[in-house]
Amino acid sequence: MKRDGYQTAAQNDEADPAHPSSFSPPPSSFQIACPPKINLYLRIVRRREDGFHELETVFQSVGGGDTLHGQLANELALTCTDPDVPSDERNLVYRAALLLRERYPEAANRGATLHLVKRTPSGAGMGGGSVDAAAALVLLAHLWGLTLSPTEFADLGAVLGSDVPFFFVGGTALAGGRGEVLTPVPTAPLWLVLLRPDVSVSTPWAFRQWRAEACTSGELDEFVQRLASGDPARVADALRNDLEPGVIAGVPEIAAAREWLTTQGVLGARMTGSGSVVFGIARDEAQAREIAGRAGAPGRAWAAPCLNAQASALVVRPS
Ligand code: C5P
Predict the structure, then answer these.
(1) Going by fewer Cβ within 10 Å, which terminus of the chain is more open, N or C?
(2) Of 156, 166, 153, which Cα lies nearest the Cα of 60?
(3) For residue 195, what are the β-bridge partners?
């Protein structure tokens, strides 16, 4: 059985009623992988009356990330491997659960024990909290027996954060509005080196640093054409992030990280989203791994592939 595009691996493994000997009890514990994103291209069109900024951006799912575990329980409870990540209403996973209970009467008062294995850095511009929230909606809908359409997931996601709806699409997507108006495009098979300077950035602060006059690089159409070519050098030449100049002016560690990646030989490097992570486009997997493994990086470095929509889909699996 397939639930509106959000395939549940457990549901493919149901016992065959024609062969009672193959029966095994249904799993009670589930997990879901939470691959984060980068912004390959981010142009700020204007500041809106509601305080948000109108964007033209290209979201790209990347490998790795958090894992969210969950099982049914009487109460709602969240634990996290990272002691610095709050486990209450300040956590988007917890807020996703409360939102689902508030919006769907059949979920009111339902409980679950959730455990978040945190690997994606916070305040990094990788949507780590946002993908956790999207995954929580999918996992809890499964646990609580709710059937939600893609539109319902996207609408709930947009309440939780501007980039949450992207994670129900995954892969590569152009985004407009405040980040929630999405158009999927094919994924270029690129390898990245990611570098996190020892600093986190507040998203509202990053947007406040935006200065239109500091942002003059290329147009979205040109970037999309280069992405379609799949040529890492052509893509790397056209990266854009209008949040970068303002953030870098206040956070020199990010400039140093970008400079380090460039001197290591990546084809092009940019900050992702509101920072602080900087990514470089490598020639291939071998170069990405080699650069990430070099000692002396000003921060934590790792290699990751760009994922297509299938590889980044939020799929519930038995734990
Ligand atoms: O939607 P989200 O909670 O991720 O946004 C966090 C903050 O980032 C917003 O309160 C706003 O200050 C800023 N933001 C923005 N324009 C966007 C997205 C976020 O100004 N398109």
Answers:
(1) N
(2) 166
(3) 278, 301
Q: Which amino acid is at 309?
A: A
Q: Which residues are catalytic?
A: 37, 163
Residue of the CA atom closest to atom 20 of ligand 1: 52
Q: Are strands 53-61 and 240-241 parallel, antiparallel or unpaired?
A: unpaired
CA dist., res. 79 & res. 14, Å (int): 29
Interhelix angle 150-160/128-143, nearest 10 degrees = 130
Q: Tell me, what amino acid is at 284? A: D
Q: Is 203 in the pocket of ligand 1 (CB under 6 A)?
A: yes
Cβ–Cβ < 8 Å for 92, 160: yes
Residues 162-203: pLDDT tens digits?
A: 999 999 999 999 999 999 999 999 999 999 999 999 999 999
3-class secondary structure, 263: helix
Specify whether the CB–CB gap between 195 and 280 falls below 8 A.
Answer: yes
Establish whether residue 207 lines the binding site of ligand 1, counting it when its CB lies within 6 angstroms of any ligand atom.
yes
- Cβ(122)–Cβ(200) under 8 Å? yes
- What SS3 class is residue 318? strand
106 class by beta-carbon count within 10 Å (0-12 exposed, 13-18 middle, 19+ buried)? exposed
Amino acid letter, residue 184: P
Instruction: Note the helical H segments in 53-145.
Output: 92-103, 128-143
- Would you put residue 59 in left (φ > 0), alpha (ψ -120 to 50) or beta? beta
Cis? peptide before 276, omega within 30° of 0: yes
**218 burial level (CB within 10 Å; 0-12, 13-18, 19+):** middle
